[in-house]
Automatic annotation (TrEMBL):
Residues 8-68 form the HTH tetR-type domain. This is TetR family transcriptional regulator. Residues 31-50 bind DNA. Keywords: DNA-binding, Transcription, Transcription regulation. It comes from Actinocorallia herbida. GO terms for molecular function: DNA-binding transcription factor activity; transcription cis-regulatory region binding. GO terms for biological process: negative regulation of DNA-templated transcription. The keyword DNA-binding applies. It holds the Pfam family TetR_N.
Length: 208
């Protein structure tokens, strides 16, 4: 007779299965019976742990947010330059997408869906604000006060450009494994840090 799982262990198992199902189908097409069947349990047992699909998704999404923000915080080292911090953020996202493909699929599917993506929108906004702040910080010491104020007002407009282009590029790279990760990561960092104008002029960051 198989050993009965503890409530905590069973809950963790159900959330892992739900992560895969939400990543594969998306919130709207995933039903509780899909999760129950994939976990090998009854739907009634699933409802003992999660009262609704909305609650289940919210907890799965919160786990993703906690995990990824923790990883991003770990590379935001005190004393690092703005470029080093941006590079660490980019590398961490590539690491996460590679190591956690189901979680990455959930992020990409639901990041901009207001009806289901509350927790993930928080992740998006926090990441974008941090990245925009790093980009602006390199010029704060040389800008006149009026130019600095203009840049601060511009910062919120950079957020969707930064996360949108970077997240899309990482997803594209996952679908094109023939492209070396180093090349894709370098291109992402060049684009964020230098911008199209400087790239068109042939400028690139010194990558290993």
């Amino acid at each position: 007779m198989a050993k009965r799982l503890s409530a905590a262990t069973r809950r963790d198992q159900l959330m892992r299965v739900a992560l895969t199902e939400f990543g594969r189908r998306g919130f709207h097409l995933t039903q509780m019976e899909h999760v129950a069947a994939a976990a090998g349990v009854s739907k009634a047992l699933l409802y003992q742990h999660f009262e609704s699909k909305e609650q289940l998704f919210a907890e799965v999404a919160q786990n993703i947010v906690d995990d990824l923000t923790g990883r991003l915080s770990a590379v935001d080292v005190e004393g690092a330059t703005s470029l080093e911090r941006i590079s660490g953020m980019v590398g961490t996202l590539f690491d996460y997408a590679t190591a956690e493909p189901d979680a990455w699929a959930v992020i990409i599917r639901h990041l901009d869906k207001p009806e289901v993506g509350v927790e993930l929108r928080e992740l998006r906004d926090r990441f974008g604000e941090a990245a925009a702040g790093r980009l602006l910080s390199r010029r704060r010491k040389v800008l006149a006060p009026e130019e600095l104020a203009k840049n601060e007002r511009r910062a919120p407009l950079l957020i969707p450009l930064i996360y949108g282009s970077l997240f899309s590029q990482i997803s594209w790279w996952l679908e094109h494994p023939e492209v070396p990760r180093g090349r894709a990561e370098s291109a992402a960092l060049d684009f964020i840090w230098l911008g199209l104008d400087r790239l068109r002029e042939g400028e690139h960051l010194p990558h290993p």
